[in-house]
Amino acid sequence: MIIEDLSEPELALWEAFPAARPVDLAGAPVRAAVIAEMLLGAREPLAGQTPGVHLSGARIVGRLDLSYADVQHPLILTGCEFEEAPVLTGARTGPLDLAASHVPGLHAVDAVIGGALRLEGCEMAGPIQLAGAHVSGTLNLSRAAIHAQQAVHADGLTVDRDLLCANAVIDGELRVVGARIGGTMTLDGARVGRSGGFGLTAEGVVIDGGLSCARGFRSWGELSVQDARIGRRCVFSGAQLSNPDGIALNAERLGVEGGLRIDDGFSAEGEVLLRGARVAGSLRFAQASLANPGRRALNAPLMEIGSGLRLTPGFVANGEVFLDSTQVRGSVNLDGGTLSNPGATALSLRRLGVTGRLSCSEGFCADGEIVIVNARVEGSLAFHGAALSNAGGRVLSLWEVVAGGGIDCCEGFAATGDVSIRNSRIAATLCLTESTIDGDLHLRGVDAASLKIGPRTQLLRAVDLRHSRVGVLDDAPSRWPAHVLMNGFTYDSLEAPLPVRERLDWLAREAYQPQPYEQLAAVYRRQGHDEAARDVLLAKQRRRRAGRQLGARLWGYVQDWTVGYGYRPFRAALWLAALLLVGTVVFTAHQPPAFKPGEAPPFNAFLYTLDLLLPIISFGQESAFGPRGAHQWLAAAMIAAGWVLATTILAGITRALSRQ
Asked: Is 537 helix (H, G, I), strand (E, B) or coil?
């Protein structure tokens, strides 16, 4: 280089180079070629000093081209204005600082930066190209403004320390597919992307120190961290993502070694996709708002969460929350959340596995169906205080659920629509006290330790209890609706067994089936209420009689009036006494002739009648005297009646003795 060809500003930079002394040119022009030649050895270093370019405020004329160069000196060009984008393709350089500069772009594909790459506060009118680059220090884009369709293209980038983009304005795509970040990646307060395109594309990225897109972060278009691996934690607290009718956050198969926070004012227009994500810590959606009407707002099946899933308080989803086949160590909490997907599924939890409890209570609201099918929850399921609605359909479907605790639908639980709990195993109580269900209640095939229906329970439609079993039925019989199906329903005991009339009214709410009566009678007998058991079985016979042929009905009436179908032995004794009185009077007035007059004992009308009525005991009167005509028919009728009445009395005595 010929010294005489240098301008005054260039000469000042030439003199300052050996000691890397700062030079402020206040807008004076400097040729990019001069800077390149100094860096490539045109200016000899001085012994004992570290050379470098430290320039600020200059206007860089021409293209700074260091392609494939090996530059060992630091290059600091802060607050400068570049005519053309610097080119460092394949270069090996020391630290590079372009902070607060106006640059048409930066081409540094496959470059190796031996230290920090500082682009803080830069105004970039074109893209930054860092694909395959390696930055051994920190890459700083904080407060930078970059305007291009693909604003940052850094596929395969390696940054040994942090990637900082806090408060940056990236008007286009920030693309770091397959990048490796040794420290943290921070986009707090940044604005990324364009509508209809991509915001942050970080598929397959590995970030050892964690990812933070918080505190005012905004994204337009799809934000993708698909297949990313993030250490420590991943934070989207307060972020606002917008990609209507598309995917706002694509975190499919994301792996996080710590917790994942999508909370504290987070909002998304479009789908939040977490399919197959693995989160070693907790996943939080508190104070988050998701909007994808008519579609899936949160699409997160096949997740594995190591320390609880919390969608409370203040979680709002307009669209389906889909969590099928998700496994959670800890609890799932949606208390106070609001879900809206009218006429369709609001919350889907098929094949869910939870080692703690599942809670949708304390102000939880859902407009649409809650579906929990083939799920296993080691704790309880809580819906107390929840308000569910799905006009014309089911609001809650719990099918083939195994609950290690109870299912709590009490204390203000309200459902407008059908509630269906089928083929489920509940280790504790299924509680419906203080609940209001304006729809059918299906409890078919349920196995629970107890079922509670309280005096303030309101079941406004039909109830189906068929083929269910509970240990203790703790109910208020008057609170059952007009139509109850209970054939095959079994229970071991009644918390409030009496009065029996209320229980019979309860059984009368279903078309006649024998099993519910036999079941209730068996429970009464086990609890020592034998008289109540007989009342139940008598009521069973009376209802059975109503559906039979005329002849059978008439015979049934006879059995009922005479002996109460065998369940009224005292009534049989009264009939026996009446017949004994009638026989004594008749046969006293009309003594029957003796079979053998010379051998017959003295006639006794009372004993003769007693002999006719008691089929086993003989007083020697019936065998000695034989009535004639109408009295013979009377005797035959008494013998037949005696068999029936005596057998009924004997059965009653036998039951009494067996109780002793």
From this structure: helix
The stretches of 496-568 forming alpha helices (DSSP H) are: 500-507, 514-526, 530-546, 550-563
Closest CA to 320 of 305, 339, 307, 301: 339
Q: Which of 302, 303, 259 is nearest to 283 (CA)?
A: 259
Q: What is the mean pLDDT of residues 70-78?
A: 93
Q: What's the rounded Cα separation, in Å, for the pair 225 and 235?
A: 12
Strand partners, 638: none
How far from 636 is each of 147, 583, 619, CA to CA, in Å?
A: 115, 12, 17
What six digits make up the tokens of 100?
């607060």
The predicted pLDDT at position 562 comes to 58
Domain boundaries of the chain, sorted by first residue: 564-659
> In angstroms, rounded to a whole number, what is the distance separating the alpha carbons of residues 81 and 79?
7
DSSP 8-class letter at 42:
I
Residue 561 pLDDT > 80, yes or no?
Answer: no
As a three-state string, the secondary structure of 267-282 is EEEEEEECCCCEECCC
Cα–Cα dist 158/62, whole Å:
29
Q: How many CB atoms lie within 10 A of CB 585?
A: 13
- Give me 614's structure tokens: 């008691």
Q: How far apart (Å, rounded) are the C-alpha atoms in residues 320 and 350?
A: 13
- In sequence order, what are the residues at sequence separation of 6 or more whose Cβ sits closer than 8 angstroms to the Cβ of residue 157? 130, 131, 132, 133, 134, 135, 139, 176, 179, 180
The closest alpha carbon to 266, from 247, 288, 244, 286, belongs to 288
Rg (C-alpha) for the chain, rounded Å, is: 45
DSSP, res 139: E
Residue 576 parent element (H or E): helix 569-589
CA-to-CA distance for 644 and 76, rounded, in angstroms? Answer: 117
> What's the CA gap between 18 and 643, in Å, rounded?
132
* CB under 8 A, 24+ apart: contacts of 435-438: 435/409, 435/410, 435/411, 436/460, 437/461
Query: How confident is the model over 584-635, as pLDDT tens digits?
Result: 888 788 888 887 787 778 888 888 777 777 777 777 777 778 888 887 888 8
Percent of the chain with pLDDT over 70: 93
pLDDT at 282: 96
| DSSP code, position 65 | B
What count of other Cβ atoms lies within 10 Å of the Cβ of residue 262? Answer: 28
Q: Are 331 and 306 in contact (CB under 8 A)?
A: no
Q: Is the pLDDT assigned to residue 571 strictly greater than 70?
A: no
User: Residue 542: is its pLDDT beyond 90?
Assistant: no
**For residues 179 and 202, what is the distance between their CA atoms, to the nearest angstrom?**
8
Find the mean pLDDT for residues 412-430.
Answer: 96
Q: What is the pLDDT of residues 378-418, one digit of tens each?
A: 999 999 999 999 988 999 999 999 999 999 999 899 999 99
Angle 569-589/630-659 helices, nearest 10 degrees?
150
Give the span between the Cα atoms of 74 and 264, in whole angstroms.
42
pLDDT of residue 656: 46
At 657, the pLDDT band (50, 70, 90 cuts) reads: very low
pTM: 0.85
Say what angle helices 550-563 and 569-589 make with each other, to 10 degrees.
Answer: 80
179: tokens are 């990048």
